[in-house]
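Hi C.,

You asked whether I'd gotten around to modeling the 366-residue construct. I have! Everything is below, sequence then structure, no commentary in between.
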Amino acid sequence: MKRLIAVLMLFGLVAAACGSDDADDAAPAATTAAAAAPATTVAATTAPPTTVAPEATAGLDELNVAYFLEWPTANQVAQVNETYDAALGIKVNWLPFASGGDMALAMESGDIDISYSQGLTPFANFVTSGSDLSIVGVAVSYADADNCVAHPDYGVTAANAASSLAGQKIYAPIGNVTHFKLLKMLEHLGVDLGSFEHIPSEGGAAAVAAFNSGDVALACAFGGSVNQMVADGGNLVMTGAEQEAIGIRVFDIISTTGDFGEAYPKVVEIFLQVTEDANTAYAADRGPLEATIAEAAGMEVGPSNALLDAFSFPDRATQLSDAWLGGTVQQVMKDQMDFFVEQGEIPEALDSYEAFVNTSFLERVK
């Protein structure tokens, strides 16, 4: 497990250097494994903002946005209704990705302009290694939607984790918030981080398969995969609320590159405005939107709603507060990277992460 994050980030930088800067190029291979969002539309819940002036999008024929399938979010009504397209006056392509690291690589290569609901940890990993990325908003806050599930055959609990996980296999991602949560949780429970075998995850479906095989004592994932493993007989070693109580905060961000934000500030602003309007409509009356969100996420309504119950979508004022982009997000990145340094996962962290949060776009949102 040791040094794998650093190796992966080095690979990511090499891969990104080989990518095209042309936004019209085909999306990275990581985006082709999942189906695109459905084209079905429903009645608009809010009027789209005024379309940007043509000069604001000069040279930009399309906007490429990364997102996750099986990760239902309030803004997906605007995604399905093409409200973003109407507001921007250009085609918006929503491209599904498997991980926040893949999103970062695609932004570096120029294949993706904006990432919606990118994990904070992969973002922090990439900027630590030199990537020119910027956080422009907070997409979703969640705790119970990202967790590790113990297989019933191993009898793992918070009380006995130090002994029951010794010599066992744990299936978990590397370099994202799920990995960070796993290590912080195990450290808190007194587990020797060198006492188990860490098998790198290949995604949520693979986590469920590894769990159901009985070969791993613990499998970690996010989204519907967590619910599925619990439904299949697993137990949470610590709940999301218990993890939050020991200082683990879990949220996803909206990000872009420094160059894109500088070249197209109005595009970023309008993207955030449409998102804010969608979040407002969702907060006012979620019920009529649930089917559309589930369809866009590639899920049935029931499982989608179960995730939505664990999500919150902070409004503009909340995002700009000290509890979020006003300072806490920057400190969380610093805390995470310092922790990975302590565990020997990365060679060093930055002194500060202030430079990678740009609130200028969100400040213009109404």
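If it helps when you're writing up: The longest helix spans residues 265-284.

Thanks,
B.
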